[in-house]
Amino acid sequence: MLEVEYITFACSEPSRVADFWQEALEGQRRELPSFIEAEVVDCPGDGPDLLFKELEKGTRKDLPLHLDLSAEDRTTSVDQLCELGASVRETKTETYGTHTSTWTIMEDPEGNGFCVTEYE
């Protein structure tokens, strides 16, 4: 059986991006041996943790791999994330029968894409 252990971010400044996600998700920074050139944020709950490494990034236009975050109050959460250094790309809403989903596509301080969703 496979389990997701980390979601890895390619960054030019791993510490800066790890700081953002640590605050955004109320996670804890993991202490790593000095020879490991990466930052890890342990996220609350049972989900995967986040790994930040200094690596070359792919395209900034697409979101081939990103985090989907859910919020009870998407607007407030988006505002808080912007205060931490994120930016908004756009907000979309779709309705399927009786189900409506609204999400905001955002970028962290280095342009890594993620979405914040609110289900109605």
Q: What is the CATH C-level name of the largest domain?
A: Alpha Beta
Mean pLDDT score = 86
Structural class: alpha/beta
Number of strands: 8
The CATH superfamily title of the largest domain: 2,3-Dihydroxybiphenyl 1,2-Dioxygenase, domain 1
- Number of domain units: 2
Taking the alpha carbons of the first and last residues, their distance comes to 34 Å
**Cα radius of gyration in angstroms:** 15 Å
Task: Indicate the low-confidence ranges by residue numbers.
Answer: none
CATH architecture of the largest domain: Roll
Quick one: biggest sheet? 4 strands, mixed
Helix content: 10-25%
Shape: elongated
Order of helices and strands: EHEEEEHEEE
Give your account of this protein's structure:
The protein has 120 residues and is of the alpha/beta class. The chain folds into 2 domains: 1-56, Roll (2,3-Dihydroxybiphenyl 1,2-Dioxygenase, domain 1); 63-120, 2,3-Dihydroxybiphenyl 1,2-Dioxygenase, domain 1 (Roll), CATH 3.10.180. The chain contains 2 helices and 8 strands. It has helices spanning 14-25, 74-83, and strands at 6-11, 28-29, 38-42, 49-54, 67-70, 87-96, 99-107, 113-119. The strands form 2 sheets. It has a 4-stranded mixed β-sheet, covered by helices on one side. The chain has a 4-stranded mixed β-sheet with strand order 5-8-7-6, covered by helices on one side. Strand 3 and strand 4 form a beta hairpin. The chain is elongated and about 50 Å long.
